[in-house]
């Protein structure tokens, strides 16, 4: 019988926001939170027994040394079937995201994206992914996205955004620093029978430096977005489109300021819960 890795740890409520941001980027299928009598929160994660699971354990121990993080192997016991019961199709703008086993529930009139929920970030359930898909829907309705355009997806994860753009007839490149994400992305691309997406392991500088794009989307965290600002803006064609997300509301102005300093105009800021998305419908001419 297949083995699963169970990870358990406790954090104070003060650490819960940071923890949710971290887990949202590392555990695509979700986790369990149980409030404790001492106002702490107990977290439990179940993962396929993969080396990435061990990496997550070490990262939690480094980030929160007092969390009491422990892990153990357990028998599957049809857990894989049990957690599937909690999934429902997710609607984001004109897109509907479904796992393969829910195709019979698809809604007519929507653009369907099949995503296998694994360890790569991006199943449509996280607000930052939803924000990006809703902004892509908005741009498509406005006639701003057309076949023949090219995109660059930084931090592609499950490739959900790349697949959405490809379904609109746009070709492009998706990159991610996590090799396992690229494995998941390839599987999702195949499941959606999509052509025109090239994948690569790495960051914004892992492909030909001369390549520029009509649309750049990056759904990562605010720190990397600021750090990678020069590499991101270097990928923009004149008068292109830029979508940034993975940003907490209180960080939105700081991220925007970094890109304005790089030569872009002020973005539109869209809010969903505690998360923000930044949209430049026309980036103008970025200073070289």
Automatic annotation (TrEMBL):
Single GO molecular function: protein-lysine N-methyltransferase activity
Keywords: Cytoplasm, Methyltransferase, Ribonucleoprotein, Ribosomal protein, S-adenosyl-L-methionine, Transferase
Keyword Methyltransferase: yes
List of residues binding S-adenosyl-L-methionine: 129, 155, 176, 219
UniProt main location, coarse: cytoplasm
Taxonomic superkingdom: Bacteria
Gene3D superfamilies: Vaccinia Virus protein VP39 (3.40.50.150)
Enzyme class (EC, first level): transferase
EC number: 2.1.1.-
One biological process term in Gene Ontology: methylation
Family to which the UniProt record says this protein belongs: Belongs to the methyltransferase superfamily. PrmA family.
General function of this protein: Methylates ribosomal protein L11.
This protein's name: Ribosomal protein L11 methyltransferase
